[in-house]
Amino acid sequence: MKFCTKCGAPMDKDTKFCKKCGNLVNNNIDKKEKQFTEALDKIDINDSVEKNNHSTIDLQNGEHSKKSKLIEKEEPNAQDLSKTQEIPVQRLDEYSDYNQPSYNNVAHPKKPRNKFLSGIVPKVIAGVLVIVVILIGVFFNRIEAAYYISKCNNSIDETEKIQYATKAVKALDSSNTKDVLKNTLVEIAKDDVDLAEKDLEKVSSMISQGDYQNIASGIKEKKVDKLCSQGKYQEAFNELNEINKLGGDFKSNKNYEDIMLNVVAKLTNTPVQNTKNLLMDNSSICFDSFDSDPFDEIIELKKNGSYSYNSDIKINLYKCKNGQYKLVDTKVINSAWNGKMQGVYNYDTDKKGVYVSYSTNANSGNSVGTSVYGVSDDKLQLKGTIGANNYTKPEDVNNDGIYEILSNSSSLVSQSGVSKWYRVYDDGKAPTEVNGSGKQTSKTGTSSNDYIFKDSDKTYLMEDDLRGKTKDELALARNEIFARHGYVFTDETYKKYFSSKSWYTPNSSYDGSDSALNQYEIANYKVIQNWENK
Predict the structure, then answer these.
(1) Tally of CB atoms within 10 A around 465
(2) Boundaries of CATH 1.20.58.1690 in the chain?
(3) Cβ(437)–Cβ(449) under 8 Å?
(4) In the predicted structure, residue 140 carries a pLDDT above the cut 80
(5) Top-confidence residue, 272 or 8
(6) Transmembrane residues, as ranges (predicted)?
(7) What is the rounded average pLDDT of the residues 359-375?
(8) CA angle (77, 82, 84) in 5-degree steps
(9) DSSP string for residues in 218-258
């Protein structure tokens, strides 16, 4: 018997291939292998005899010596021989049934694994687990933030409120949590601005620069309110300057007009006026945005001498420089009397200017001119002068948003009595005539399309506009403001009057409140009301 050199399975003597693994067998058995096999057989026989007879068998000296030499040559010691003896026995036991023909004895190649699937499946599972973890984290953060927001809203202690608001932002960085933090700090600022600013500094590392500026502006808004309530208007203006540096809209502050009225009064040494239009009417001063500077410019019209041959008018321009208003330019209109500031209007597309009227003859009210001044590069710039025969207020006669001036000529020399409307230009070129109705809308008309004050929703009314009106006309002018919004009148007089106007459309949902009116309309109806009570 022999064994396969590859798998060790027992094989018949003349077999050429191993039935177990199909290995090619060399029939020329190595001599040493044959000798080794014979030696094993002898050893097995000797062991068997020794066990049966319980005695030692004396082999012939020649044969014993020959076999001993063979054994010594192939197996150096008894221990190695013992190990060698176990090998064929083990293999024989393992493959005792090997010679039995069977299909299962035929070696079959193993089915190869799908390497693609074995590689992608773990990655997919890992990806799903990561997504699940992220979703759990997101939902948990939302729940946690909602909890802290609720605690903040329900807390009455300022320290606790800011702590909960801060924790909400830490849990979830969202516009909602930041709004809660801002509202909390602003609420604290109502009572203690310094504390609110300190708390903001503590959480500044948690929020972006933009969020910090937004919250800081809100806190300073409350500081402005507090300073105004204490009559500290200059300090309040300084805080408006800080809000501007933070990128906030300081002009939207509810105290802005009051602050400017007090700043103007101190700057020009004039009485404090209650409204912008009274400031213009009583003091010939206005403040508005004439250029790209975020701060309003202040323009002042002053008499520059007595009523003599050399009398003239001086126009001063003040601009905000480093948080303080300073005089930066002055223009003089020579040989001018009775100077009046007619108002601030658009003289060109998106260009505001101040319209100044004056007389060129101390003894004549008919020789009147109107000059328009704009602001550029911190300078007053004359845009044009129109000769006129009265103090007619500028009008937007062709409804293009640009205000024209009524005149007999485009120079200061009075010409024919035919009235024409002229407009000026930003580049200072010669004024040109504009086609328009030419009708003065400051007088009550009978047309179905006319207004008593056509632009009472766009500009502030002046004393000159109201002077000479009867109380009935003033009442109609005041109600005209509300009629524009569709107020439904119950008084028969007003109902009949406004129903005859083509522009009037009744709106039953409008209750006549100020919420639907703009700043011009609110100021104008109050001024008219004051004149009615005179």
Answers:
(1) 25
(2) 442-534
(3) no
(4) no
(5) 272
(6) 120-140
(7) 75
(8) 95
(9) HHHHHHHHHHHHTT-HHHHHHHHHHHHHTT--GGGSTTHHH
68 — pLDDT class (breaks 50, 70, 90)? very low
List beta partners, residue 369: 358, 387
Residue (of 170, 235, 254, 245) closest to 213 by Cα position: 245
The reply to whether CATH 1.20.58.1690 applies to domain 442-534 is: yes
Identity of the residue numbered 15:
T
CA-to-CA dists, residue 218 to 40, 105, 160, 207, 244, angstroms: 104, 89, 20, 15, 12
Q: How far apart are CA 194 and CA 201, in angstroms?
A: 11
**Contact between residue 384 and residue 359 where contact means Cβ atoms under 8 Å apart:** no
Both structure tokens of 244: 């501007």
Q: Give the HSE-up count for residue 233: Cα atoms under 13 Å, Cβ half-sphere.
A: 15
DSSP state for residue 490 in the 8-state scheme: -
CB 228 within 8 A of CB 237: no
Please tell me the predicted confidence (pLDDT) of residue 355. 95
* Beta carbons of 75 and 87 less than 8 angstroms apart: no
Side-chain-side CA neighbours of 89 within 13 Å: the count stands at: 9
How many residues does this entry show for the chain?
A: 534
Does 228 score more than 70 pLDDT?
A: yes
Grouping H, G, I as helix, E, B as strand and the rest as coil, residue 3 is: strand
CB 73 within 8 A of CB 66: no
Amino acid at 204: S
Listed in sequence order, the residues at least 6 apart from 510 whose beta carbon sits closer than 8 Å to its beta carbon are 482, 485, 486, 487, 488, 516
Residue listed under structure tokens 């599972």: 125
To the question of pTM greater than 0.70 for the whole model, the response is no
Contact call for residues 295 and 319 (beta carbons, < 8 A)? yes
Give me the residue label for tokens 């004439």: 290
Yes or no: say if 457 and 521 are a contact pair by the CB < 8 Å rule: yes
Structure tokens at 186: 């602003």
CATH of domain 122-250: 1.25.40
Cα distances from 347 to residues 314, 384, 454, in angstroms, run 21, 10, 17
Residues 6+ apart with CB under 8 A from 424: 347, 348, 353, 372, 383, 384, 386, 405, 431
Q: Which residue's entry shows tokens 């409307």?
A: 421
Amino acid in the structure at residue 376: S
Strand 337-348 and strand 351-359: the pairing is antiparallel
Per-state percent for the chain, helix, strand, coil, to nearest 5: 45, 15, 40
CATH 1.25.40 segments of the chain: 122-250
Give the pair of three-digit tokens for residue 195: 């504390």
